[in-house]
Structures are given as structure tokens and as C-alpha cells.
Amino acid sequence: SSGINAEYGGPQQVKAGLKVGQRIKLRSVNYPNHCVSRQSNGRVAISDSGVGNEWVVRSGLAGKGFSLESVRHGGYLRHRGYHAWVDQAELNKDLYRNDASFTVEAGAIGKGISLRSVNYPNHLLRHAGYVMWIHE
């Protein structure tokens, strides 16, 4: 199993433990030197490279929860085919907005936080083999 710790600071609107408008890094609980990062092909994985691992917390594009915008690449973290990607923003498409929205809750492994898909509410964002994906 896997979990995520959010690293952030500074005042702003609190959105379920994260702060809208704030830059964060999402660090793996069981691989603490690895952060959730956009890879060169757009896939999202945990990595210790230090590249593509900063996110801006935004109000959920689906109208609830929150969305994570890539600082380095633009676009939002979303699930597509159950795998996590950072795709060009298609804000006029319901599917994109829903796939890029998550709620936050206490970590599924008893530490950190878990990110739950808004449109697949039984699925949490997690890593397996370093790759991020949503899973029941």
C-alpha cells in the first residue's frame, strides 16, 4: 500500500486540509525521498528527480474537491484509463474536469493523506511500481 504526505505552508483558503492557491509537493509515505511528479511523457509517477514535482492547489474543476495544477508543465493531474497523467487543460470538457478533481481524506495506511477521485468515488490515487493510478 502507499500513502502521500502533503508539504505546504502559508495562509490561504483551506480546502479539506490543503490550501487553495498554494504550491505543494506530495511526498510518498513509504518512499519518503520520492514525490508525485510529472514524467517527460506526461505520465505521473513518484520520483526522486526533483523535476515536475510542484503543484498548485486549485478549487476542484468539477465543482467540488480540489485539482492539482502542474507548476512546471501546466495542465492538471488527472486520471485517464485509471493511470495518472498531466494533460493539457481541456476545461471545456466535463470528462477532463471530473477526471482532474479529487477529495482529500486521512491516509489509507494510517499516515499522510489519500486523494479520492470525484467521478470514481470508490477509487483512491496511489502508486504501484512507482506509477500513479487510481484503484479501489
Helical content band: under 10%
- Name the overall outline: globular
Which percent range describes the beta-strand content?
A: over 45%
Number of strands: 14
The biggest beta sheet is recorded as: 4 strands, antiparallel
**Termini separation:** 12 Å
Low-confidence stretches: 7-16
SSE topology string: EEEEEEEEEEHEEEE
Radius of gyration: 13 Å
Derived structural class: mainly beta
- Overall residue-averaged pLDDT value: 87
Number of helices: 1
Strand order of the largest sheet: 1-4-7-8
Structure overview:
The chain has 136 residues and is mostly beta strands. It contains one helix and 14 strands. The chain has a four-stranded antiparallel beta sheet, with no helix packed on it. Strands 11-12-13-14 form a four-stranded antiparallel beta sheet, with no helix packed on it. The protein has a two-stranded antiparallel sheet with strand order 2-3. A hairpin with a 6-residue loop joins strand 7 and strand 8 (66-70). The termini are close together. The relative contact order is 0.21. Mean pLDDT is 87; it is low at 7-16.
What's the layout of helices and strands?
Elements: E1 4-7, E2 14-15, E3 18-19, E4 23-28, E5 35-38, E6 44-47, E7 55-59, E8 66-70, E9 76-80, E10 83-87, H1 94-99, E11 102-106, E12 113-117, E13 124-128, E14 131-135
Task: Provide key terms for this protein.
single chain, 136 residues, mainly beta, four-stranded antiparallel beta sheet, globular
